[in-house]
Specification:
By secondary structure, the protein is mainly alpha-helical. It is built from four helices and three strands. Strand 2 and strand 3 form a beta hairpin. It is flat and about 65 Å long.
């Protein structure tokens, strides 16, 4: 006999996923409608234009940070803590500071990927350095000027 709390949790999760699917399907429909309008407008100007010659572009939308904000927030957090700090702790400090709450584990993981990417760029730019690991989690600190 199935446990009612398991069924309840699974049906709740199913409803959540159905809601996300409907949300993204609506976005896709809107984008397809917009694409169709653009295609028609292009053909007004040039009926022979080959729309298949237009390649899709990879789009990476960062809905959490303004341009350059990630670096500023990470450096501020590392300065305030004044010690080597784990990636997950930095992510939590920044998300709390921005008042973010994540609707799903996917959203939290996406946020953390953005933070990790920013940290890696900061290493490449000589602003911070990796000082170790705690299991799979990197530990970071501001690079000392010599």
């Amino acid at each position: 006999m199935a446990e009612t709390h398991v069924i309840s949790a699974l049906t709740s999760k199913r409803g959540e996923l159905l809601g996300e699917i409907k949300h993204y399907e609506a976005i896709i429909k809107e984008h397809k409608d917009n694409l169709s309008s653009i295609d028609k407008t292009i053909h007004i100007f040039d009926k022979s234009y080959n729309l298949n010659s237009v390649k899709s572009k990879r789009v990476m939308k960062n809905r959490y940070f303004k341009n350059g904000e990630t670096v500023t927030l990470l450096l501020d957090a590392l300065r305030k803590l004044n010690r080597p700090t784990r990636t997950d702790e930095l992510s939590e400090i920044i998300s709390d500071g921005k008042g973010l709450s994540f609707e799903s584990d996917y959203d939290r993981a996406n946020f953390q990927k953005i933070v990790v990417a920013a940290l890696s760029r900061m290493v490449d730019n000589g602003l911070i350095e990796r000082v170790g690991r705690d299991g799979l989690t990197m530990i970071w600190k501001i690079k000392e000027i010599s």
